[in-house]
Design goal:
- The chain has about 290 residues and is of the alpha/beta class.
- It has a single domain (about 5-285), classed as Alpha/Beta hydrolase fold, catalytic domain (Rossmann fold, 3-Layer(aba) Sandwich), CATH 3.40.50.
- Helices cover about 45% and strands about 15% of the residues.
- The protein has an 8-stranded mixed sheet.
- Strand 1 (about 5-10) and strand 2 form a beta hairpin.
- InterPro entries: AB_hydrolase_1, AB_hydrolase_fold, AB_hydrolase_sf.
Length: about 290
């Protein structure tokens, strides 16, 4: 995987980077690591400098102790990791692409550091506060894991760590045939590590509290995304079922947002990499 890329550890993050041209950072979702981009990053690296980190807490990146507010796993803390990483690599301005949980880090980076983010792509995600305010019986039934992960008595960690491979469908829908052997091996190593499982769950706990508050504060202050922004979503996932037109959800945050669906299940970088690459290239080039 990642032929021609360099593997480093910078500021607590495990990161692969390669290519040349305008810089773009790719942020994975739960429960993946940076290797989810193995079919996407090399194609983008033909014309961009591509940076793929493991998010804080995920994969082999650092896992700082949490606290009662879960702030160490807030998207603001994770976004700060990304800006520091890009500075270390010499990129003061860059595009950011985030999928799933990574989409929350991506838009938080663009909101908090508008002078540094040139373009934003969010995939399969809407602002946390928008998701929670639209929560109804269908959302609660389909996304029940948010509330299970949010329990402070830590039943999620106990249940997942008892049999992580079954919980994460590691030999069925998330098997090596779907993920690719090396990506699958990295995924397995991550979900088998109790410290990684705990950190990933802390990400969700932060989402229900401190991240929601950050979104509410931004909205009350009238802050909007100022960089060109695109949303992509997997049409065989449940984004449209829950939100209808997801672009409408984003328009109060970014009136000029563009986007479209991709024929894929949730993990689009693995399920429809060619179409994702084309969409990203078209947007990032302009």
């Amino acid at each position: 995987m990642f032929e021609g890329f360099q593997l480093d550890r910078i500021g607590g993050l495990r990161v692969r980077h390669g290519g040349s041209g305008l810089p773009v950072v790719l942020l994975h979702g739960h429960p993946r690591t940076h290797t989810t981009w193995w079919q996407v990053a090399p194609e983008l690296a033909r014309e961009f400098t591509v940076v793929c980190p493991d998010l804080r807490g995920y994969g082999e990146s650092h896992k700082p102790p949490s606290d009662a507010t879960h702030t160490p796993y807030s998207k603001r803390s994770m976004a700060r990791d990304i800006t520091s990483l890009m500075s270390e690599l010499g990129h003061e301005r860059f595009a950011v692409v985030g999928h799933d949980r990574g989409s929350y880090v991506a838009y938080r980076t663009a909101l908090d550091w508008p002078d540094r983010v040139t373009k934003l792509v969010v995939i399969d995600g809407v602002p946390v506060v928008e998701a929670l305010e639209r929560c109804d019986a269908k959302f609660a039934a389909d996304w029940w894991h948010w509330w299970f992960f949010g329990q402070l008595a830590k039943p999620a960690e106990r249940v997942i760590c008892a049999d992580p491979e079954t919980w994460y469908n590691a030999w069925t829908s998330n098997g090596p045939d779907q993920l690719g052997p090396e990506n699958h091996a990295d995924f397995l190593a991550a979900i088998r590590n109790p410290a990684t499982v705990h950190a990933m769950i802390e990400d969700y706990r932060a989402g229900l509290g401190v991240d929601r508050q950050a979104d509410e504060d931004d909205r009350a202050a009238g802050r909007q995304l100022t960089c060109p922004t695109m949303m992509l979503w997997s049409t065989r996932d449940d984004i449209e079922d829950i939100y209808g037109d997801p672009l409408q959800v984003w328009r109060s945050w970014c009136p000029q947002i563009v986007g479209h669906g991709i024929d894929s299940t949730h993990h689009v970088a693995e399920n429809a990499p060619a179409e994702l690459v084309r969409s990203l290239q078209t947007f990032l080039r302009t």
